[in-house]
Amino acid sequence: MKKVLLALMLAAGTVHTAQAEDVLHLYNWNNYIAPETVKNFEKSCKCRVVQDYYGAMEEMLAKLAAGAKGYDVVIPTGFAIPPMIKQNLLQPLDKSKLANAKNVSPAFMNTQFDQGNKYSLPYSFSTTLVGYNDKKIKELGINPSSWAIIFDPAVLAKIKGKVTVLDDSREVFAAALMYNGYSANSTKPEEWKKAQETIIKAKPFWAAFNAQSYIKELTLGNIWVAHGYSSDMFQANIDAKAAKRNFGVAYGLQKEGNTLSLDSMVVLKTAPRPDLAAKFVNFMLDGKNASELTNMIGTGTPNAAAAPFVKPEMKQNSAVFPSAEQMKKLQQLTALEGKALRDLNRMWTQVKTAK
Amino acid sequence: MAKSNRINKWLISGPPLLYLIIFFAIPSLIMAFAAFRFPGDYGGLLPLIGPNPDTGANELLVTAENWRDYLTFENFGLFFTDSIYVELFAKSFWYAGITTLICLAMAYPLAWLIARSPKKYRDLMILLVILPFWSNFLIRVYAWMIILGPQGYFSMAINQVLGLIGIGPVQLMFSHVAVIIVLVYVHLPFMVLPLYANLEKHDMALLDAAQDLGASGWQRFWKITWPLSLPGVWAGAALVFIPALGMFAVPDLVGGTDGIMIGNLIKQQFLDSRDWPFGSVLSIMLTLAVLLLAGFAALIGRGGKRNAL
Fold first, then answer.
1. Which of B42, B91, B256 is facing A83, going by the closest CB pair?
2. B82, A346: Cβ pair inside 8 Å?
3. B110 is in which domain, residue-wise?
4. What count of CB pairs under 8 Å joins A to B?
5. Of A59, B100, B108, B170, whose CA is between 20 and 30 Å from B38?
6. Distance CA A132, CA B88 (A)
7. How far is CA B55 from each of CA A311, B51, B58, B61, rounded to the nearest angstrom?
């Protein structure tokens, strides 16, 4: 009996090592690929996927800059791609192995961050918007489709202490700039000043700057309005339903415009398995596989071939499927450098310490 | 004999000394140097060594003519151009100070009680004091977020009581009060342990003698127990004050819109704003402020001892 066991263990061990030879290392945002999708890919490539996660671009960039190796594919947001290119971290994509690249909608190709898509291909996108407790906001008769819901003191008076905004200087300033009718990417000092005034006037009505726990606070009903990412609001609504709350978490775009974060797949220069990396990128660009990101994670899809597979209720959601008209009002944030970054940093500290 | 003694001394003190030099002294010096440099494009610092455009070989880019492009006092200037940084320092000291005082007020009776309990229970009681350390710090803070949240029973009970005396509901979560409550909770054991270690050693005969000589309960505490326990008080205060001062996770999680402390600002420089030089300046200023305070406390402490003699 013991011998049988030993043999079994040895066999298991050898099977395991045989598999271990084909491993794709994916470095991705938390909760940014459905487990089902991973399983399907493992089946199709006959390999194993090992995931590692980051919670912010700064974290990912810092880790790679410090020399972390062993990852094949990373999924950065637009503004993080130029630093990766300049630091010589990426390898050009071999388009001959990526037949599905044609599925990407032209609107998401050739962005300012990687002209010609030499290094990156779009994965999915989220919008930064306002999510809210549908019952409370209806009761109070507040219109959630304008940034006024987080910036206008007259509106905020009804929901004082029940609002959180992201703890992210770029996103909060972008929202305030758009509320004032400026570009989200403006760096004009007088426009920044105006945005800062808007923020400081609204701040006494906010409960907190929160990027960590607003999903939970919304789901519990502690917070009624949160500035955050569309995919998080999707998650909050699922959680609220699962907890059988008497309210849902609704979300939609603001009429003044929103920011859009497009995440793309890149292959690292140090990738141990560029062949598997190419297979993975091609797999995720397939219409059906891309649609799972929308159906299960709640992100927008830059993939034109995904539309037929997307659930009808997701298609009706303008935060996930913006119309051509709304698309024009979505802006991707550019990377700030040097003096502009320092100025914003100082203005943000002033906001944080303002009474 | 003397020689081998000296070797033994080095063998014992060498490893920790080496550890402190490598992981404390050298990084501190690097940080002090970083405070005079310019930020790099994508975090880090503007490199001093880079490829020569003509030859392509790596070489030192700084020369006698261009050192102003690489070294600067501007980062320190930034600290003083706007009063917000100094105000934030003051606020953080205030938070840490209040936390230390509340911890002291709560820990002193507790430590005294444990020290005066029958010996067989003392270890168990000390174990109970450090029990919270068995779970992760962040989990404990998240538990407080639930307790203080408007749907939590603690919050609801407090608002019920306030409602009876006609005061409107208060929000506990995301407030200064929440930051102080959690800071006190997190640091309380660090005050109890040194106080207990001190109080346990007190000679009870002194108190009996004082009583025989007609001292009241209050006089016995104020003239005997308190002065004797001062080393424990100072040790506990330092163990609470210094970590509380640099805390960033607690204000991040339970603080309101103006709850940030100096730790949050330093974290913001290194991560979000990618401005290592200014982050270094803030860290150096914080270290200096703590050293100044420690020196001041040492002076007072010495003065107190002289009076006692």
1. B42
2. yes
3. 77-305
4. 93
5. A59
6. 33
7. 59, 8, 9, 13
Q: Do B258 and A352 touch (CB under 8 A)?
A: yes
Q: Which residues, given as ranges, of chain B have pLDDT below 50? A: 308-309
Q: Which residues 6+ apart lie within 8 Å of B132 measured at CB?
A: B140, B189
Q: Do A208 and B150 touch (CB under 8 A)?
A: no
Residues of A at the B interface (Cβ-Cβ below 8 Å)? 56, 58-59, 61-62, 65, 83, 86-87, 161, 167-169, 203-204, 206-209, 212-213, 217, 220-222, 337-338, 341-342, 344-346, 348-350, 352-355
Partner-chain contact A207 B85, CB within 8 Å: no
Closest CA to B235 of B137, B100, B77: B100
Q: Is residue A149 part of a domain?
A: yes
- B177 to chain A, any CB pair closer than 8 A? The answer is no
Q: Between the CA atoms of B169, B175, B177 and B183, what dihedral angle is there, to the nearest 10 degrees?
A: 140
* Interface ipTM above 0.95: no
Residue of A nearest to B152 (CA): A222
Q: Which token pair is A206?
A: 């906010």
Residues A224 and A289 in one domain: no
Report chain A residues whose CB lies below 8 A from the CB of B173: 207, 222
Nearest CA distance, A118 vs chain B (angstrom): 21
Residue B128 lies in a domain: yes
Q: Which residues of B touch A56 (CB under 8 A)?
A: 271
CA atoms within 13 A on the CB side of B199: 23
pLDDT digits 0-9 by tens, B179-226: 999 999 999 999 999 999 999 999 889 999 999 999 888 999 999 999
Q: What's the gap in Å between the CA of A161 and the closest CA on chain B?
A: 8
Residue in this structure with the two tokens 């010609």, named with its chain if needed: A116
- Residue A72 domain flag: yes
B276 close to B258: Cβ distance less than 8 angstroms: no
| Judgement on whether residues A242 and A194 belong to the same structural domain of the protein | yes
On the question of pLDDT at A21 being above 80, the answer is: no
Mean pLDDT in residue range A226-236: 94
Q: Do A345 and B275 touch (CB under 8 A)?
A: yes
- A60 plus A117 within the same structural domain: yes
The tens digit of pLDDT for each residue in B122-135 reads 999 999 999 988 89
Neighbours of B241 (CB within 10 A): 23
Name the DSSP class of A157.
G
Q: Quick one: A99 and A176 in the same domain?
A: no
* Residue B97 C-alpha from the chain's centroid: 10
* Residue A67 backbone zone (phi > 0: left; psi -120 to 50: alpha; other: beta): left
